[in-house]
Design goal:
With about 270 residues, the protein is mostly helical. Helix content is about 55%, strand content about 0%. The protein is globular, with a radius of gyration of 19 Å.
C-alpha cells in the first residue's frame, strides 16, 4: 500500500505537494480545491455517461414508468454550484488534516483502511438521514424544494440542489477528520463512492436489483431513492435502509418492488 501512495506522490504537482506540508497557504489550498473539483467532475461525467447508455439499452428497468423528466438537461445548470460546494467541504477536511488541525490519522494498513472506510460510511449514512429529515421540515424545506421538483429523477438530478442543501449534506466531509482518525486517502475513496452512489440513487432505472437491497439485508437501491422522489415522505437515507426501517419511514412497498425488479432481470438473462 505504501508503494501505491509513493507512486501517486511522484505524479503530484509541486503546488499540491506543498499543500501537504504544515504552513501551506491559500494558493496551495486552492490547488487542492481545484484537484478535488476535477476529481468530482470526472466521476460525475463518467457515471452519467454510463447510466445514459444503460438506461437506453434497458428502458424496461425504469422505476417510474408513467413519468418522464423532460427537463433533465436544464437541471445541470445547478451542478457547478453543487460541485463547488461539495468540493470545498471535502478539500477543507483534507487540508485541515494535512495542516495538523484535525485528529492524527491512522497509518494506512490492511485493517485501518477498510475499518475507517466502513465506520465513516456508516456515520455518513446517519448524518445524511437526519439532515435529510431536517430538510423536510417546514422551516428548512425551502432549501430542499428545488431538488424535489424532479419527481422522476435522472442521473443528473444528484446535483439539482441549492447551495444550502449541498453544504448541509456535504459538511460531513470537513467535520469527520476532527472526529475519526480517518486517513485522507480513505476520505477521497469515500467521496468518490459518495459521488457515484448518489448518481446511482437518482438514475431512475433499477439496473442492480439484488437480495442485498432488501430485507434482511441493509443496503439500499435505486428503487429506494426513486421512491423518495415519487412519494416524498419515505426513504431518507443514502447507502443503507436500516435508519428508515428503525424510524418507520421506509416505503411500505420497497422490498416487494426490489424483488419484482430482481425477477425481471433474471428472466431477461
Amino acid at each position: 500500500m505504501d508503494w501505491v501512495f509513493a507512486a501517486a506522490l511522484s505524479m503530484t504537482p509541486p503546488v499540491l505537494l506543498r499543500a501537504m506540508q504544515p504552513g501551506a497557504g491559500i494558493f496551495n489550498f486552492l490547488a487542492l480545491y481545484a484537484a478535488v473539483i476535477a476529481m468530482i467532475v470526472v466521476a460525475m461525467m463518467g457515471t452519467g455517461l454510463f447510466f445514459e447508455i444503460m438506461n437506453r439499452r434497458h428502458p424496461e428497468r425504469k422505476v417510474q414508468k408513467d413519468r418522464v423528466n423532460a427537463r433533465k438537461w436544464r437541471e445541470l445548470v445547478y451542478a457547478p454550484g453543487s460541485v463547488a460546494m461539495l468540493s470545498l467541504c471535502a478539500a477543507g477536511g483534507i487540508f485541515a488534516q494535512w495542516q495538523g488541525w484535525a485528529l492524527t490519522p491512522l497509518p494506512l494498513s490492511w485493517w485501518s483502511v477498510p475499518l475507517t472506510l466502513l465506520v465513516s460510511v456508516l456515520l455518513y449514512d446517519a448524518w445524511f438521514y437526519w439532515v435529510h429529515r431536517l430538510l423536510h421540515t417546514r422551516v428548512m424545506f425551502r432549501f430542499h424544494a428545488l431538488h424535489h421538483t424532479s419527481v422522476s429523477p435522472t442521473v443528473w438530478t444528484n446535483h439539482h440542489e441549492t447551495l444550502v442543501e449541498s453544504f448541509l449534506n456535504q459538511f460531513y466531509f470537513f467535520l469527520i477528520v476532527f472526529i475519526l482518525p480517518i486517513p485522507w486517502q480513505v476520505l477521497v475513496v469515500q467521496k468518490i463512492y459518495d459521488q457515484i452512489s448518489g448518481m446511482l440513487g437518482h438514475a431512475g432505472y433499477e439496473h442492480f436489483a439484488s437480495p442485498l437491497g432488501r430485507t434482511p439485508w441493509p443496503l439500499a437501491s435505486t428503487v429506494f431513492h426513486d421512491q423518495h422522489h415519487g412519494y416524498f415522505r419515505f426513504n431518507y437515507a443514502h447507502t443503507f435502509s436500516f435508519w428508515d426501517r428503525i424510524m418507520g419511514t421506509l416505503h411500505p412497498k420497497y422490498d416487494a418492488t426490489v424483488e419484482i425488479f430482481e425477477t425481471r432481470q433474471e428472466r431477461a438473462r
